[in-house]
Amino acid sequence: MSTEIATRGRHKEWKASLTSESVLVRWALIVAALGYLTLFLFVPLAAVFTEALKNGLEGYFVSFADPDALAAIRLSFLTASLAVPLNLTFGIAAAWAIAKFEFVGKQILITLIDIPLAVSPVISGLIYVLLFGAQSWLGPWLAEHDIKIIFALPGIVLATIFVTLPFIARELIPLMQSQGREEEEAALTLGASGWQTFTRVTLPNIKWSLLYGVILCNARAMGEFGAVSVVSGHIRGLTNTMPLHVEILYNEYNAVGAFAVASLLTLLAIVTLVAKTIIERKTAPSQSAHDPAWSTQPGHPA
Amino acid sequence: MSLVLKQPSVLPGFGLTLGFALFYFSLIVLIPLSGLFIKTTTLTWEQFWHTVTEPRAIASYQLTFGASFLGALINGVFGSVVAWVLVRYHFPGRSIVDALVDLPFALPTAVAGIALTAIYSSNGWIGRYLEPLGLKVAFTPLGVLVALTFIGLPFVVRTVQPVLQDLDLEVEEAAVTLGASRWQTFRAVIVPELWPALLTGMAMAFARSVGEYGSVIFIAGNMPLKSEITPLLIMTKLEQYDYAGATALGVVMLVVSFILALMINLIQWWGTARHSAR
Amino acid sequence: MSIQVDHVTKRFGTFTVLNDVSLHAQSGELLALLGPSGCGKTTLLRILAGLERPDQGRILLHGVEVTDQRITDRRVGFVFQHYALFRHMTVTENVSFGLRVLPSAQRPSPDKIQKKVDELLSLVQMRAMADRYPNQLSGGQRQRVALARALAVEPKLLLLDEPFGALDAKVRKELRRWLRRLHDELHITSILVTHDQEEALEAADRVVVLNQGHIEQVGTPDEVYENPATPFVYHFLGDVNVFHGRISHDHTSHKGTSGQDADASGEHEVTFVRPHDLELSLSRTTPTQLEATVRFVITAGSRVRLELASKDSPQIISVELTRERYRELKLSQGDVVFVHPKQLQVFKMPGPSSV
Description:
heterotrimer; B: 278 residues; mainly alpha; globular; C: 355 residues; alpha/beta; six-stranded mixed sheet; five-stranded antiparallel sheet; 27% helix; 33% strand
């Protein structure tokens, strides 16, 4: 009896080892992976908070009493509150057109939407300076009418919109494509108007990905550095967003101050990662829900 | 509208949504980008060529592309290891590690920049051990490499992970029953499946690193001809009101970005074509 | 509500899906659109619903032209092949949807809506599942909810697109009978699209057989089965033996075209016989019987099927016998039998005979 159990146990071990590497190799890989991640990921993450708290909790909160820091925080929020809704509208419009209709050039549009991701942030800012700056074709006209775009809020918002444009669209397009048009068609046959169909049928089906897209877009909008750096003019208290303020503080050797503001952005990044994990869990199990091949369960009446 | 739409649609809103999307996209992306190319035409060919081939620019290309390439290689190797470990092994905290892999995506580049600088400077957590060994990381090209490796970290992991997850365990079992060792199985069965994803991930890491600015300028020395990346050179020219110079370099970078994006699409297409051929 | 389809043509790119199709459905009848995949039946149904627009032709509902009317105005109930239930709504919310989106002037009170939903759910026997979500239901249950949802807006016309296509055979049979009983109770003009001839013949008042965008035949199930108008209908609605040339017979009724064997216009004649219309005997009784050898006997099922190898040609003949007749003949593999048709139909086919 005992030999039987022993044999079965060894058999299980043997089967498992068929498709896995030796214990030594396994541990070597884990150590390598964790070592690499520690060096390049965990340590930098921890550093933000340890540096911010170098002067203790009091020192941490003092950093936020600085009016320039507060102005920077306000500007970042303002920029995001303008950029995100606009990109949200774009994302929904583009995803609706792409997912629910067949038209010439659809694939080209999908590829085009990824362009801002491929462009260096400095270039993203440069193009707006060339378009609206003092030396541009529009420059004199803008100066005449006292409209400031570069080195002012509009320029910052534009550059931020450019850089974060694809995020919401990229979340929605594949999802809406996989969901098809049938539910919308059904709603129309039942008498719903276009708007009713969108709000009552489409929107609930995409809500989690939409939420994540907005969170991601917001985090990237508040954290954008390179593009905003080009168009901003770095005027303290006026045209500095949080990342730019971090740079200023750091260059003034105010490490604690810089890391304190940086910690806020880091927390935002962590919230984004948490949101992603939660939403991935929410959207994965519903795949089986609309599997048309699923027919009667055995033993249940039809 | 019937010229564009392949079938007259019964779902409403086509004209409205496509029209708005195209309008918005043209306004924000297409027009400004073409503005860059148009501005380039104001330069003569000599001016353009002179700007993009001056020694300072060449040095910046070497640093930017060189460090990006090395960073992509490092990420290619270690990113694959990380993906393997996350998919195949179970250890406490695995899901947290998995979520954190995306940190370089979500973290603002400036924050990454100052954090890495703090760590790798002479009295930083890691820097203090490396200095005595002669490895100065902060304010050197090596620092650029470290920053770009950080930036590119998620790309390889996230492209290789799904492929590993979809691998059919039965194929590996078949190889073993036919007498292959673990290493042979790995080489003959697993690696071929991973190639397209790995190359795609590396190309994406490379493309992202080439344009990277915020996380690099804190840790690089930013010394012209030595530790200056191309985006910084563009920024410097802008600050000196050398719009022509900035534009010329900008066009170079943009063209490189588009070529890279095209290559990535081709690699991905190659990857799926291999699959459907089976 | 009666339906009139008037010379409807529909193209997708260069492919003509419906070619000058006209038909008429009486008020209150259950009409089946039957045909193989790609014959245009689903497209015709969607045109009736307003989900597609015809390139030519008109649609009239109860005498009123609706070709250009929007879907939302048509008051047509549509049941999709894959149910298209709203995945994030409960069964109750799905069924009440059509009532909830009515303009406020026409919308019933929430109590009335709930009452109506309860009525409908009882009708489709889904009352107990009222608070479930679609992904908690089986295929058959989902289909019944889809039907209740379509009925909630009191449509004058009910369109069903292969409603049982995604279900397994037993469930299909049950639901098909249940749908027929439901129709007998409600008397809503209904059009059912299916590729399953058994389904069409069992459930419908009349059957429209479609092939490659045009109508082959319209008639009651009996008519299309007993008197197929074309070889296609013959083939599609059950098994058939095809004999080239005319086979003569005695003691049989003969339907179809009569004509010479060798036709001057370059056509040849083909005889169609159903397997159950072939008589077998163990010895030759008339000079016109076909001699054949038994190749396979399949006894599973309600009838016995035999495959015979014809003596004079390489043809395989399919025969269906009742179990009693099979036992009478005591046939086994290798036996020689003599075959003659009880009933046949002759068609003219273009081109020379391929025998």
